[in-house]
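queue> pop job 88
queue> type: inverse folding (structure -> sequence)
queue> payload:
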């Protein structure tokens, strides 16, 4: 099992594609080697952590309609 990244200094921003119905995703890209994603309605709740390569792969799939 790998060690969880320290997300203490994460600076989250709301996704530009989040809807106005409060179903929002926030992303932090300021930490070295990690992209953190959380639910804006629960900022103290859990966050998902991705490598930048995995996050870019996900975004490419979403933009291409594969996901």
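queue> result:
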């Amino acid at each position: 099992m790998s060690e969880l990244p320290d997300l203490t200094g994460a600076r989250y921003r709301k996704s530009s594609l989040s809807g106005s119905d409060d179903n929002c995703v926030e992303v932090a890209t300021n930490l070295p080697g990690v992209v953190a994603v959380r639910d804006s309605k629960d900022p103290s709740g859990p966050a998902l952590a991705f490598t930048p390569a995995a996050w870019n792969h996900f975004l490419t799939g979403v933009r291409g309609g594969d996901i």
